[in-house]
Structure formats: C-alpha cells, structure tokens
Amino acid sequence: METFLTAARDGDLARLEGLLTADVRYVSDGGGVVGAALRPILGRDKVARFSIGVLEKFAAGLPVSVAEVNGSPALLFGEVAVLLVEFENGLVSGISTVVNPEKLEFLRRQLSHS
User: Fold this and answer.
1) What CATH architecture applies to the domain 2-112?
2) Model confidence pLDDT, tens digit, residues 55-94
3) What confidence score (pLDDT) does residue 61 get?
4) CA distance 44 to 93
5) InterPro entries given for it (predicted)?
6) What is the per-residue pLDDT for 105?
7) Which one, 6, 9, 15, 44, has least CB within 10 Å?
C-alpha cells in the first residue's frame, strides 16, 4: 500500500506500472454528488496515469492513513476519499475509490470518535 502511494505521489509511472497487473481495473463512486470517473479505467498504463493524476489534482496535501475497510486494505484521504485495493499474486489487480459523501459518513463518525 505504501509503495503504491509513494509511487503515485512521486509521479513514478514506471514504478507504479510495475505494481499493477496487466488487467488492473479502477472504478470510482462519486454517487453523482461529486466528480468521479464515470466508467471503469482498465489496463496498467491507464490506471497508473489516472492514479497519478488523481492524487496530484485532488489529494495533494490531504492526510493519508492506511486502514482496513470491509476486509480490504485501504488508503484513507482525510474524510473525503477511501481508496480500496485488491491484490493478486502480490500485484494490485483492482482499485475502488469512494468519494460519495453519503457513503463516507461512517468515516467521519469514526474519526470524530477517535
């Protein structure tokens, strides 16, 4: 998780691509409330480039923590996004981002009780 985050934040495309399966899939859920990719992003190159762009544009400066969400490893970006990561043979095979504020209410409640 941390290697993925570091490579994406550093804009290290080659390193990031090396962490992804050839058929990796990235989906995001904005719930029609906030901006998110409308269709799945497929393939190592496209997912790597999209991940770098999203972190650069929307997550710069946000606090990030590693957590487990719904039994999967995840990165929490403050209270505004959860990035869930699926692994296959040590490589990232799927990424799901939730940015829908209604679906992130649990995160805000959890953080306020910490």
Assistant:
1) Roll (3.10)
2) 888 778 888 888 888 788 888 888 888 899 999 999 999 9
3) 83
4) 9
5) ECF_Sigma-70_Domain (IPR052704), NTF2-like_dom_sf (IPR032710)
6) 78
7) 6
CA distance 49 to 26: 11
Beta-bridge mates of residue 84: 74, 96
φ, ψ of residue 20 in degrees (nearest 5): -110, 145
- Contact (Cβ atoms closer than 8 angstroms) between residue 54 and residue 46: no
The three-class DSSP label of residue 33 is coil
Place of tokens 């770098």: 52
**H-type helices in the chain, by residue range?**
2-10, 13-18, 44-58, 105-112
Among 84, 91, 101, residue whose Cα is nearest residue 24: 91
Q: How far is CA 82 from CA 21, 22, 29, in A?
A: 21, 23, 10
Show Cβ contacts of residue 41 under 8 Å, excluding neighbours closer than 6 positions: 25, 26, 27, 47, 50
